[in-house]
Amino acid sequence: MASIDIVTVDGRRLPAGSKAPKGSRYRARWRTPAGASRTRTFERKVDAEQFLLSAEHAKSLGAYVDRAAGDVTVRAFGERWIETRRGRDGAPLRARTRGLYRQLFAGHVVSTLGHFRLRDVTPAAVRQWHNGLTGSTAPAKAYRLLRAMMATAVEDELILRNPCRVAGAGVERAPERPLPTRDEVWQLANAIDARFRALVLTASFVGLRWGELVGLRRRDVDLAERIVHVARQLVEVDGVLVDGPPKTAAGVRSVAIPLMLVGELEHHFEQFVGVDLDALVFVGAKGAVLRRSNFNKVWSRARDEAGRPDLHLHDLRHYANTLAASAGASTRELMSRLGHTSPAAALRYQHATAERDRVIAERMDDLIAGRSERPTLRVLKGAG
Hints:
Blueprint: E1 3-7, E2 13-14, E3 25-31, E4 37-42, H1 45-61, H2 74-84, H3 95-113, H4 123-131, H5 138-155, H6 182-191, H7 194-205, H8 210-215, E5 221-222, E6 227-230, E7 233-237, E8 240-244, E9 253-256, H9 259-272, H10 292-305, H11 314-326, H12 331-338, H13 343-349, H14 353-369
Antiparallel strand pairs: 1-2, 1-3, 3-4, 5-6, 6-9, 7-8
Helix pairs in contact: 2-3, 3-5, 6-7, 6-10, 7-9, 7-11, 12-13
């Protein structure tokens, strides 16, 4: 039950019905929807009365926000959110995902907004913070993280509305990565150390991620059926290698491999892979688990020799999927090869089909003109 007490200058509460002496203040008392007791002091009784009316009205509408609960800082709330966050399926976040969240939060949110109380984070403060972020993809990632945290704060009734309202701020606008040509892929394979030749070709023609490549075991590669089974990945989190399933359920998949890759893998198995079915397919020079930091040294030399120092290893995955799109793979087929649940990524690769469409139009010209020539389908430059 809401009530108003008279409080003297020295902090004493006067009995109900007492006349307020000079300098007294009025302390409003009420309970939150969760049953917690709250107080707030006003200089005028009318202000206390209006406040209690508005609080009761907000509770009746389900719009009440507990200002005391919103006193927690963004840093404290965010750190707790990361540690307790679960995925959409209710399962705990993967170690790598939690590690990425920590990096984003510590590197892009804490320094500017970390000291703010949740209830003091305004849309203007978020807008100013976002404007100060730099990089091609980090601003969007950091914004999406903060928006998700604030959405939880709204659900927990710590704040009334999510202050993250910057239109388009969560959309990544990374520049399109350059793709190697078919000849450059072979130049990279020829230039790199022999034990990594098959890794480069598998990345280029199957399109696996780094973690999926280094997590492959002998049992996962069926050369007779020309299929690679992706069942796990190795990721590095805070310097520790974690062996687990792909990042989404769709990541567990079987991908057909081109015939020309079979011979390369057969040779690789003979030379560099242990006979045990659990033997890793790609390992370092001393047989240890392959780490990105070690591989980057030989990769850097190979790409320099091939004349493409701008290439990232992940660009080979893009090349593989653009090549698949050029070969006529549908959106659903590309999603399956990519290991994605959303068609968004697959659609990015289907720009390659525009070249196929031009070739079809050229064939139509031949038919319309009565010519017998039938040019073969060309693969889009940069995609093969």
